[in-house]
Amino acid sequence: MPSDGHVKPERGFVTYRKISDDILRTIQAPSPSYFLALGVVAAVLLWGVYGLTHQIRVGLGVAGYEPPIMWAIYITNFVFWVGIAHSGTLISAVLLLFRARWRTAVARASEAMTVFAVMTAGLFPIIHLGRPWYFYWLFPYPNQRELWVNFRSPLIWDVFAISTYLTVSTLFLYLGLVPDIAAARDRQQDWRRYLYRVLALGWQGTDRQWRHFNSLYGLFAALATPLVVSVHSVVSWDFAMSILPGWHSTIFAPYFVAGAIFSGLAMVMTLLIPMRTLLHLEEYITLHHFENLAKLMIPTSLIVSYAYVTEFFVAWYTGSAFEFGTFVDRALGAYAPFFWVMVLCNCLVPLSLFWKRVRTNLRALFVISLLVNIGMWLERFVIIVSSLAHSFDPAGWVGVYRPTWVEGAITAGAFAWFFLLFLLFIKNFPGISMTEMKEVSSPDGPPAVSYQPSALRLEP
Amino acid sequence: MNVHVLGVFDAAGKAADAARALRTDGFARVTTYAPAFDHNLDAALGPGKSPVRAFTLAGGILGCALGFAFPIYTVLDWPLITGGKAIVSLPPFVVIAFELTILFAALMTVAGFLLSSGLPRLRQAPYDARFSQDRWGVLVTCAAERAEAARAHLTQADVEEVRVGEGTR
Predict the structure, then answer these.
(1) Which residue does chain A place closest to B127, by CA atoms?
(2) pLDDT tens-digit profile of B65-109?
C-alpha cells in the first residue's frame, strides 16, 4: 500500500467515484415496489390517525383501560419505541468510539432509525394523556399561577431525557449528513437540489470545515454514549421508582438498557435486510454486517434472559408475598401466554445465533429479528400490564385488560408512521454515509479489513 | 489585486503535496478541498486544533449548573413538600442536571462547529462540483504577480486542471 495517499481510480477497486455513483443512485426515481410500500404504510397510518381522532373526540374511555390497569398499550409502545432508538446510537456513536469500522455501512440507516423511533415514542405519552392538547404542561415554563413541574417525579425526568435524546440524535444525524447533502447538491438535477442547497449550509469540504467537522463528530459520539445509557435508565425509573411489585426493582436500569439495545438491533435488521435489496446496496451492506449485528444480539439477549431469571429469583428470595404473587401471576395468570411467547422470542430463539450458519443466513436473521421485535414488545406489555393487574389489593385482581380497536389502530399507525418516515428518508438522503465510506476506503487509513474482499478492495 | 488559483487533483496525496509546497514557499492563503476527511491532507496545512471542544466543555458546565439551579429555584419559589422529601432534594435533580449537561454541551458543540467552520455560508469561495465526489482541490489566493509561481507548484504536484480567476477577498 503506498503511503502517499493516492487513490487510483482504476476498475476493480472501490474508488471514490464508485461510492458516489452507487450511493447517490439510491436517491434517484423510486421503483414501483417502493411506491407500493409507501402506499401500504400510508394507508395504515391513516387508519391510525382515524383511531386517534376518534379517541380525542370521544375521550380516553375508548381505550380498554380496566382499573387498576390504567397504563397499557400506549405506554408499552412508548417504551418499545424508545428502546428501538437505542441501537442506532449504539451503532453510530458507541461503535465509532470503539473504532469498529464495520459500522460505517450501517450507521446512517441506524441513526435515521433512532430519530424516527424517538419521534414515534414521543407521541405516546401525549396520546396517553386525557387531554392531549395540554401536553405543554409537561414542560416547566413561567405561568400565571407560578406553578412548576415536580422535578422529583420520574415522569418529568423522562420529559428531559426524551427531549434531550431527540435533539441530540437529530443533530447527530443531520450534521453527519451535511457533507453527503453537499455531494447530492453537486450532482442532483431535479427540484430537490434547492432543498439540498439549503440543507448543505454551503459546505465545500475545505480543510477548515473538515477539521472542525471531525472534532464535532467525535464529540457528539462522546456525548451520545452516556446519553443513550441514561435515557432508557430514566424510562425504566418511570416504573422502578414506584412501589408496585414487579416494577420496584434496582435492576431495572441495566435490564432496560440491554433490552433496548437488543430490540433495536432486531429492528435495524428488520429495516436493513429489505432496504439493501430495495436500493441495491448488496455490495455495501454485506453478510458480514448482519453477522456482526447478530453477534451483538447474543450478549444483549443473554443479559435480558438473566434479568428475567433474576426478577423471579429476587421475588422468591425476598420472601415478600406481594412480590412473589405478582411473579407467579405473571407466569401462570391471565397474561401468561404473552409471558411465555416473550421468553420464547427473547431468550430461546436468539440462542440459535450461536451458530454461524444461522448468523449468515439472511432469511433466518429476518425471521429472528421479527420474532425479537414481537418478543420485546410483549416484554414491555407483560411488565406494565401484568404488574398493574396484580398490585397490593386483591379486590383489583379481577379485571382483565382487553385492548380495543382504537388502541390497535393507533399502535399499527405508529409502526406505519415510523416506516413511512424511514422510507421517505432513504429515498431522499444517502442511506449510507458516502464520506465515511470514502474515508475507510482511503489508502491513508488502516485498511477496511472487515469488508468482503470481493466488495471492497484496496490498492495492493 | 488578488487572484485565485484553483488546482484540481485526482488524488488526496497530490493535493497534500501541492499544499505543502505552497506553504513552504510562503503562500499564506491556501485552502484545500476534499470529498472525505484525509489525515495527510489535514496535516499538510500545518497542525491545528479545533476549538470546538472548548465550546462543548463550556456548554456542559453551563448545562450542569442550570440543571441544578433551575429545579432548586422552582422548589424554593413554591416550597411544597412532596413524598416527605426535603425541599431542596438534590438526588432527583441529578437526573435533570445530567440531561441538561448533555443537551447544552451538544448545542454548544454545534454552535462552536458552525462558528469555527464559517457555516452556513452564502457567498461561496471558488469551488468545483467534483470536490464532493472524487476530486481534491487546492486554492491559492495571492497577488497577481505570484500567480505563476503558484501554478508552477500545482503543476509540479501533477495537477489535473488549473483555473485562475479574479479574487475579491
Answers:
(1) A204
(2) 999 999 999 999 888 888 788 899 999 999 999 999 999 999 999
**Chain A stretch 3-62, residues whose beta carbon is closer than 8 A to a beta carbon of chain B:** 4-9, 15-17, 20
| pLDDT, greater one: B150 or B101 | B101
Question: Are A216 and B125 an interchain contact pair (Cβ–Cβ within 8 Å)?
Answer: no
Lowest model confidence (mean pLDDT) among A131-135, A253-257, A397-401, A454-458? A454-458
pLDDT in tens, A386-406: 999 988 888 888 888 889 999
Mind telling me how many Å the CA of A190 is from chain B's nearest CA? 16
* Phi, psi torsion values for A438, nearest 5 degrees: -65, -40
Spell out the residues 6+ positions from residue B135 whose beta carbon is closer than 8 angstroms to its own. Answer: B8, B9, B10, B35, B128, B160
Contacts of A385 (CB under 8 A, 6+ apart): A69, A71, A72, A76, A335, A401
Query: Per-residue b/e over A319-339, b at no fewer than 16 CB within 10 Å?
Result: eeebbbbbbebbeebbbeebb
Would you state the pLDDT for residue A441? 73
What is the reported pLDDT for A14?
Answer: 65
A67, A68, A103, A119, A420 from A52: Cα distances, Å: 22, 23, 38, 16, 18
Q: Which three cell numbers stand for residue A380?
A: 414491555
Interface test with B, best of A203, A212, A441, A458 (most B CBs within 10 A): A212
| Cβ distance of B11 and A7 shorter than 8 Å | yes
> What would the pLDDT profile of A27-47 be if each residue is shown by its tens digit?
888 888 889 999 999 999 999
Give the span between the Cα atoms of B7 and B15, in whole angstroms.
8
Residue A99 grid cell: 473504532
Q: Which residues of B touch A230 (CB under 8 A)?
A: 95, 98-99, 102
Q: Do B131 and A164 touch (CB under 8 A)?
A: no
A103 touches chain B (CB under 8 A): no
Q: Do B106 and A146 touch (CB under 8 A)?
A: no
DSSP bridge pairs for A238 = none
Three-state secondary structure readout of B61-73: HHHHHHHHHHHHH
